[in-house]
């Protein structure tokens, strides 16, 4: 059993507290948050946990082997660096950092000290995303040619990052994980429709990712939608897949549909054939993604091997987000990665 401390016990931090507390492989020793009211709420649920408003207590505690950080992204770098310098393994909320320079420094520090960094891209551990990766790798869809996702809802507005940095990490991490394709460039457009004090944060945005093999991905994120939508369409040369995370059952549907060109002459003669067959929905397990991630983080530390959402994968997501921000400033101009 390994000992862990948690920094941040807000909305997502509460989920971390529950999962680490209930795990058979973790002993949750201490929780830190600058808001005493949040700590008081935690104490009502878990009266035996030690809480503090001073994060340095966690860094200085020799009994703690790992620290999970669930705080605003602007604080990620300093807190993670402090944990690594204290020789603690790190679990860090997405996105990893505010820029790739910070990410590179954390990755180098972890490598030098033989420590694990796990970035909490929880969707990667869901049964649905694991199944989608399995389907793609089996060749059932053929070669993936495009990825189209929509992640929209009314709120929750963030006050430190725009909607791309808040919502798009989910879809970027999923895209990178299931396809293993190399992104080449990005284009991003967006708009700040509501002003938060002096901040102008885009609350609606559209991101296009171009890949070296010609594949294209489009990601639509929005804090101002009247309905909550969580869908991904993945088109292959043989079949097409639709993932709807809002459904209670049949979250994944595979359609036996495609476009066929028999030969080069068909391209010029516009002899396009559309194939439309049956639809089927694979069965999914019901395991909780966060619980699975918590256990695999323990296993990674014990075996000294990275998780599937390690620091390097987190850095890849930050690189795309950083380029997307640059494209936003240039009104959607292409930014090469």
Write the layout of secondary structure elements.
Elements: E1 2-7, H1 11-22, E2 26-32, H2 36-45, E3 50-52, H3 56-60, E4 66-69, H4 76-85, E5 89-93, H5 100-112, E6 117-120, H6 127-138, E7 144-154, H7 163-179, E8 183-191, E9 204-211, E10 216-222, E11 224-236, E12 240-244, E13 252-260, H8 264-269, E14 273-280, H9 289-303, H10 311-329, E15 335-336
Parallel strand pairs: 1-2, 1-4, 2-3, 4-5, 5-6, 7-10
Antiparallel strand pairs: 7-11, 8-9, 8-15, 9-10, 11-12, 12-13, 13-14
Annotated CATH homologous superfamily of the largest domain = Dihydrodipicolinate Reductase, domain 2
Q: Helix/strand-derived class?
A: alpha/beta
Order of helices and strands: EHEHEHEHEHEHEHEEEEEEHEHHE
The end-to-end span amounts to 41 Å
Q: What's the Cα radius of gyration?
A: 21 Å
Biggest sheet, spatial arrangement of strands = 14-13-12-11-7-10-9-8-15
The largest sheet, given as strand count, sense and whether it forms a barrel, is: 9 strands, mixed
Mean pLDDT: 92
Ranges with pLDDT <50 over ≥5 residues? none
């Amino acid at each position: 059993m390994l000992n862990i401390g948690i920094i941040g016990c807000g909305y997502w931090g509460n989920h971390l507290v529950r999962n680490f507390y209930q795990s058979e492989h973790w002993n949750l020793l201490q929780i830190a948050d600058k808001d005493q009211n949040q700590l008081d709420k935690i104490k009502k649920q878990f009266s035996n946990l030690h809480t503090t408003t001073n994060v340095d207590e966690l860094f200085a505690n020799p009994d703690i082997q790992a620290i999970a950080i669930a705080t605003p992204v602007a604080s990620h770098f300093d807190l993670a660096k402090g944990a690594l310098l204290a020789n603690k393994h790190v679990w860090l909320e997405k996105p990893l950092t505010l820029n790739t320079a910070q990410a590179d420094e954390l990755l180098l520090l972890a490598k030098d000290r033989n420590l694990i960094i796990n970035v909490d891209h929880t969707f990667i551990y869901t049964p649905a995303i694991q199944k989608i990766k399995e389907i793609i790798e089996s060749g059932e869809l053929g070669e993936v040619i495009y990825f189209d996702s929509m992640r929209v809802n009314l709120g929750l507005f963030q006050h430190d990052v725009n909607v791309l940095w808040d919502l798009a990490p989910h879809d970027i991490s999923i895209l990178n994980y299931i396809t293993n394709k190399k992104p080449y460039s990005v284009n991003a457009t967006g708009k700040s429709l509501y002003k938060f004090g002096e901040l102008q944060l885009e609350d609606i945005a559209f991101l296009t990712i171009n890949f070296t093999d010609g594949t294209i991905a489009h990601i639509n994120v929005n804090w101002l939608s009247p309905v909550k939508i969580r869908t991904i369409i993945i088109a292959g040369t043989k079949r097409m897949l639709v993932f709807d995370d809002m459904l209670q059952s049949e979250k994944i549907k595979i359609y036996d549909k495609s476009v066929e060109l028999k030969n080069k002459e068909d391209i010029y003669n516009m002899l396009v054939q559309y194939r439309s067959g049956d639809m089927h929905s694979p069965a999914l397990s019901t395991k909780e993604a966060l619980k699975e991630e918590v256990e695999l983080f323990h296993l990674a530390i014990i075996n000294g091997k990275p998780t599937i959402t390690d620091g390097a994968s987190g850095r890849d997501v930050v690189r795309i987000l950083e380029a997307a921000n640059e494209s936003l400033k240039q009104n959607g101009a292409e930014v090469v990665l």
